[in-house]
Amino acid sequence: QVQLVESGGGSVQAGGSLRLSCAASGYSFSRDCMGWFRQAPGKEREGVGIIYTGFGGAGYADSVKGRFTISRDNAKNTLYLEMNSLKPEDTAMYYCAAKYGSCASGIRPDRFAYWGQGTQVTVSS
């Protein structure tokens, strides 16, 4: 049974940093697509960024480019999201997600089969 468990959320002031982790179990996502999504109250879930765990770099939403970095430790089967220069508009529940195969379908929540329970990130001004 595939499980994704996020951790690392919290409350920070604007300009601060947080690092989220997503530990996967039940399947080794070594040549698959994993990503981070977020959902603020009253808004639709949106993609933050995705990464192909086999090779290559990550892709990001315009709103986080230059501030957020996705990385992956295949040995630990863990995905990370390093968030810097946080803004109040980054406040949301952050979710880790995974799908088999490539990231060709892009940062589309409906394309991802597996989801974590989410971790809250709150940025105060």
Features:
125 residues; mainly beta; seven-stranded mixed beta sheet; four-stranded antiparallel beta sheet; 11 strands; 0% helix; 50% strand
List the helices and strands and how they pair.
Blueprint: E1 3-7, E2 10-13, E3 18-25, E4 33-39, E5 46-52, E6 58-60, E7 68-73, E8 78-83, E9 92-99, E10 114-115, E11 119-124
Parallel strand pairs: 2-11
Antiparallel strand pairs: 1-3, 3-8, 4-5, 4-9, 5-6, 7-8, 9-10, 9-11
Radius of gyration, CA atoms, in whole angstroms: 13 Å
Query: What structural category characterises the helix and strand content?
Result: mainly beta
- Share of residues in helices: under 10%
Q: Can you give the mean pLDDT?
A: 96
Short description:
The chain has 125 residues and is mostly beta strands.
Outline the structure in words.
This protein is mostly beta strands. Helices cover 0% and strands 50% of the residues. The chain is built from no helices and eleven strands. The chain has strands spanning 3-7, 10-13, 18-25, 33-39, 46-52, 58-60, 68-73, 78-83, 92-99, 114-115, 119-124. The strands form two sheets. Strands 2, 4, 5, 6, 9, 10 and 11 form a seven-stranded mixed sheet that branches. β5 and β6 form a beta hairpin. The protein is globular. The termini are far apart.
